[in-house]
Design goal:
This protein is α+β, with helices and mostly antiparallel strands. The chain is 20% helix and 34% strand. It has 2 helices and 9 strands. It is globular. The relative contact order is 0.22.
Length: 125
């Protein structure tokens, strides 16, 4: 249904360091690197990031988050570890989320600008 999403951030260099690290375990890379924008994906850009004067304020109660598909549960684990090592905050460690489905394995982090992100794998262990 969606072709891509875009977010605004204050510091494009810090954001690149974070997303390069956090998305690498999921097999996503920076496919577009401009002075004020970044584009991540696998094959084509699906997640755009641009420098913004007024990014959306972080709001833990908004329900807004971005979920990235992971190729394996090990990749979910690696995503979470990399996100925290790159300056992100924990928002839920790797594990099964039975409320979402029998094989819903996910981890959650908060990026340096306050955006909530998730890595998810739906395959069996």
């Amino acid at each position: 249904m969606l072709d891509h999403v875009s977010i605004g951030v204050r510091d494009i260099a810090a954001t690149r360091r974070f997303y390069d690290a956090a998305l690498a375990p999921l097999d996503y890379a920076c496919l577009s690197d401009g002075a004020d924008s970044l584009g991540y994906g696998s094959g084509s850009v699906a997640f755009w990031i641009s420098k913004s004067q007024r990014p959306v304020p972080a709001d833990d109660q908004s329900g807004l988050h971005f979920c990235f598909k992971a190729p394996s549960r090990a990749a979910v684990n690696a995503f979470h570890a990399a996100a925290l090592a790159a300056g992100g905050r924990d928002n839920g460690g790797p594990g099964l989320r039975a409320d979402y489905g029998a094989n819903y394995y996910a981890a959650f982090a908060i990026d340096p600008d306050g955006y909530r992100i998730e890595a998810y794998c739906g395959s069996e262990a």
